[in-house]
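Notebook entry, structure prediction.
Reason for the run: the old model in the group folder had no record of what sequence produced it. Starting over properly, with the input documented here first.
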Amino acid sequence: MSDLTAPFVPAFTLTGRTLRLSRRNIEALSVSLILPVMLMLVFVYLFGGALQTGTKYVTYVVPGVLLLCSGFGASLTAASVSHDMAGGIIDRFRSMDVGGTSFLLSHVVASVVRNIVSTAVVLGVAVAIGFRPHTTPLRALAAAGVLLAFVLAVSWLSAVAGLIARTPEAASGFTFVPMFLPYASSAFVPIGTMPDWLRGFAEHQPVTPVVESLRGLLLDTGVGNNIWIALSWSVGLLAIGVALSGVLFRRRSA
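New structure, fully documented this time:
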């Protein structure tokens, strides 16, 4: 084993552990996989006929549902981190010289893997009910990169929530914000239909440029500056999450 890969071995091992634990938590895993699909079906078939978006509503709504996946996945990540912090296993990790970076990275990587699976499920169902992307391989890859950057940022912030909370239930509650933000954005209705006091917030919060970037890249429409704004938000939130999680882990494990 080379010296370059040795520092990552604990993180790889712990990621496998976290994924196995997720697989055994059938209820939480089902919610993170099935609930975004259920919400998409509700929006498309119950509300879609009453909402005017200039295109088929399933085409309009899918990018927003993809971001909902990250919110539901965040809840599971925060609860998992909180459970480990309260369960005493951190002392065992420290006795094996496993640092906080490896521990937190394992939860974040597991969160990204879960989100990839839920995204694939949502896209599969979306295509089955009429979603037809108009894109190129390069634009599809760019859309995946934008979504992955946002998921990574939300996952690190979820780890922060898990470190702050004292119980897994409280940690899940902290993730209300990333689960709520897509609703107050252009994910489900055009911002122009919102009241003035809400429109300003919807235009300048992180989810809107991510949704508009995904929509433009997947449907072959213009993205303008949205992709750079989306990546700036993601990088900024990721930096905050990494910095806070390091400080909080040292305090909780001291």
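Summary: The longest helix spans residues 57-86.
The old model has been moved to the deprecated folder.
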